[in-house]
């Protein structure tokens, strides 16, 4: 069973589930790891669990058009709850599990959520603290009963209680759920996917059953997806990528989803499972790369030398393949030896030994990091989409993986580039609108129905889409030289010591940047040099760390055109945090908010000042705020290479791509 899997009658997600229960009912549908043991549910069991919960919702008054939200880590019951709501004609509203109270209150109230399914006591406590702000809330259901014994809120029910009530309700109503599923239509709203809110309050993107299935069909026409594939469900359930792959495409193909034990065990569970397909945002790939660099730096001299040799060999080979050049016999033999000694063991450590393909999406991945993974034998490709497009617009086919493109536009979708360079897309997966925001819905489309992505880009001669940056962020230096901060940002983040980077330059004489160090990596670097520190703020203020980052930026500058090179930088005194609105929950930098918050620092970067005093606001998990007052040093980036003993790199960087003005 492969790709051609949607029948004429299976036009909604609940109908796909019912079809799977009837046709592949004994195959594994989902696994959950609990206390170190994987528990498997077949498609027939999956459908029974969803049906029982749907009946329980109906017994508690849930009806067509009502909204059900889920909050927590990836758990089978949270997926079942969404499908149960959709089976009754309701709408699923997943939210980010690490959202602070004010963010949750906004989404729950805006979506008029009447039922919330929470993973555990922590999430239940969050919701109960907001109950006075949620007039529509009628039922709060929890999955994990640990710690819930003495709670007595009238809103509370356990998942088992709801299912038990459902079985009682359904005893006298045979065929109730099946009849409700039959009432569903492709035009029914299936999901409210709230955007990450890079420009303000998140918007509720209304996606229909047809939107999701059309996006799934486009993916299946482009990629090799098989019924015996294994998929790891670890991405936030509120991200459209999880809704598309872990739910929609899984239902369409019938492959097995696997829920890890918890956030801390994802890497271990990934290695144990060895999925055949994998999707991760750039932050995950960057974290993997950083972990590799740290482990290599801590290895023996011989292992470091071996890794450096085979890494550079693999990188040269990948560049040659990209340019269409044949590999010499010596290179081919070297790669075979490297496969035995380095490449295969590394893929095994990452949990990608069986992966036929892997994707990066949600934001751009720097070309150096991209090429690193491909050179080690991972079929990493770029994918591009938007919440408003049900998560998919373009992807890279096998054999057409390039670091600076996002691939070909998918089947059934059209693209054009507006006069101002903005990418416009037309697709059957295009959302129905923003909930309660008709003006924003109108502004998101052209008069003739094309979706405004907000991204600046172009089509290259091969027909691949190239995304430059967010259209609103593309500017020019004072001398008119084009300035695209995202390109520079991705170059900087290739350094294992840089967690986040925010370059500035629009209308300015040169490029400057705010840098947030990677605490774990810089901390290890400091420990090896016996540099004591007490906190992130203390470590980032050390002059040795400023010198370290200055050298990393200088290395980055060597790969940039002269006009794009960073002249000055400042190390911020705290990590960029979603709770402080500096990044989104999907870890995209909110550049305009950062520019406003750090306006004094940015002004100092373009003056002759050597330091700047900042008052930064921080937000705690309970919504309280506090102030951090600090004087930060501004540093210049050296033009000449630093002395060998200053260089921080324990492993040589791979060959860099040619620089073109």
Q: Please outline the major beta sheet.
A: 5 strands, parallel
Strand arrangement across the biggest beta sheet: 4-3-5-6-7
Q: What structural class results from the helix and strand content?
A: alpha/beta
The averaged pLDDT comes out at: 89
| Shape field | globular
| Count of runs of 4 or more consecutive helical residues | 21
How far is the first residue's CA from the last residue's CA?
49 Å
Query: Under the CATH scheme, which class of the largest domain?
Result: Alpha Beta
Kindly report the name of the CATH homologous superfamily of the largest domain: ANL, N-terminal domain
* Corresponding CATH architecture of the largest domain: 3-Layer(aba) Sandwich
Instruction: Enter the CATH topology name of the largest domain.
Output: Rossmann fold
Share of residues in strands: 15-25%
What count of domains describes the coordinates? 4
Q: Which regions have little confidence, pLDDT < 50, spanning 5+ residues?
A: 1-6, 642-661
Report on the architecture of this protein.
The structure is a single chain. This protein is an alpha/beta fold and about 650 residues long. The chain folds into 4 domains: about 15-275, ANL, N-terminal domain (Rossmann fold); about 285-355, no CATH class; about 380-470, Luciferase, Domain 3 (Luciferase, domain 3); about 475-635, GMP Synthetase, Chain A, domain 3, CATH 3.30.300. About 35% of the residues lie in helices and about 20% in strands. It is built from 21 helices and 28 strands. A 5-stranded parallel sheet has the order 4-3-5-6-7, with helices on both faces. A hairpin with a 5-residue loop joins strand 20 and strand 21 (about 465-470). Helix 1 (about 15-25) packs across helix 2 (about 45-60), helix 2 (about 45-60) packs across helix 6 (about 160-170) and helix 12 (about 300-320) crosses helix 13 (about 330-350). The longest helix has 22 residues, at about 300-320. The radius of gyration is 25 Å and the shape is globular.
């Amino acid at each position: 069973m492969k790709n051609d899997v949607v029948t004429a009658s299976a036009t909604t997600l609940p109908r796909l589930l019912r079809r799977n229960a009837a046709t592949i009912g004994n195959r594994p549908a989902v696994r959950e790891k609990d206390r170190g043991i994987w528990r498997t549910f077949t498609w027939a069991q999956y459908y029974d669990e969803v049906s029982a919960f749907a009946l329980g919702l109906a017994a508690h008054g849930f009806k067509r058009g009502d909204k059900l939200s889920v909050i927590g880590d990836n758990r089978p019951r949270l997926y079942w709850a969404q499908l149960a709501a959709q089976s009754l004609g309701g709408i699923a509203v997943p939210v980010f599990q690490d959202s602070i109270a004010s963010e949750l209150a906004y989404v729950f109230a805006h979506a008029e959520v009447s039922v919330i399914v929470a993973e555990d006591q922590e999430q239940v406590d969050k919701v109960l603290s907001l109950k006075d702000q949620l007039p529509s809330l009628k039922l709060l259901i929890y999955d994990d009963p640990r710690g819930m014994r003495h709670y007595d809120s009238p809103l509370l029910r356990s998942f088992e209680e709801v299912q038990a009530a459902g079985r009682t309700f359904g005893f006298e109503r045979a065929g109730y759920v099946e009849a409700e599923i039959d009432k569903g239509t492709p035009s029914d709203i299936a999901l409210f996917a709230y955007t990450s809110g890079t420009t303000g309050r998140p918007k509720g993107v209304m996606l229909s059953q047809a939107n999701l299935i059309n996006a799934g069909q486009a993916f299946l026409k482009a990629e090799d997806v098989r019924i015996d594939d294994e998929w790891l469900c670890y991405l936030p359930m509120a991200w459209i990528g999880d809704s598309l792959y872990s739910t929609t495409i899984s239902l369409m193909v019938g492959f097995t989803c696997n829920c890890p034990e918890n956030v801390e065990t994802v890497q271990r569970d990934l290695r144990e499972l060895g999925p055949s397909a994998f999707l991760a945002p750039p932050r995950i790939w960057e974290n993997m790369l950083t972990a590799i660099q740290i482990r290599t730096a801590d290895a023996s001299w011989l292992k470091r030398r071996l890794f450096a040799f085979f890494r550079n060999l693999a990188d040269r080979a990948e560049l040659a393949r990209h340019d269409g050049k044949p590999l010499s016999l010596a290179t081919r033999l070297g790669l075979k030896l490297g496969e035995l000694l380095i490449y295969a063991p590394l893929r095994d450590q990452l949990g990608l030994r069986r992966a036929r393909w892997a994707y990066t999406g949600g934001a751009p991945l720097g070309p150096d990091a991209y090429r690193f993974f491909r050179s080690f034998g991972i079929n990493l490709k770029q994918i591009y989409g938007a919440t408003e497009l049900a998560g998919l617009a373009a992807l890279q086919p096998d054999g057409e993986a390039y670091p600076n493109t996002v691939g070909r536009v998918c089947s059934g979708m059209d693209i054009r580039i507006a006069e101002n360079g903005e990418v416009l897309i037309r697709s059957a997966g295009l959302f129905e609108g923003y909930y309660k925001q008709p003006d924003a819905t109108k502004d998101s489309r052209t008069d003739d129905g094309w979706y405004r992505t907000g991204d600046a880009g172009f089509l290259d001669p091969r027909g691949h889409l190239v995304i430059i940056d967010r259209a609103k962020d593309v500017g020019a230096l004072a001398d008119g030289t084009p300035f695209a901060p995202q390109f520079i940002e991705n170059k900087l983040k290739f350094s294992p010591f840089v967690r986040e980077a925010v370059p500035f330059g629009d209308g300015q004489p040169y490029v400057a940047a705010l840098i947030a160090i990677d605490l774990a990596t810089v901390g290890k670097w400091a420990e090896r040099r016996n540099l004591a520190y007490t906190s992130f703020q203390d470590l980032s203020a050390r002059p040795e760390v400023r010198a370290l980052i200055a050298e990393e930026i200088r290395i980055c500058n060597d790969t940039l055109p002269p006009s794009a090179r960073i002249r000055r930088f400042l190390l911020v005194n705290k990590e960029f945090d979603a709770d402080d609105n500096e990044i989104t929950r999907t870890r995209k930098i909110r550049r305009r908010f950062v520019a406003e918050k750090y306006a004094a620092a940015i002004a100092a970067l373009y003056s002759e000042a050597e330091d700047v005093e900042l008052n930064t606001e921080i937000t705690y998990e309970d919504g309280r705020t506090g102030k951090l007052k600090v004087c930060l040093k501004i540093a210049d980036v050296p033009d000449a290479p630093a002395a060998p003993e200053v260089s921080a790199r324990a492993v040589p960087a791979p060959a860099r791509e040619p620089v073109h003005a």
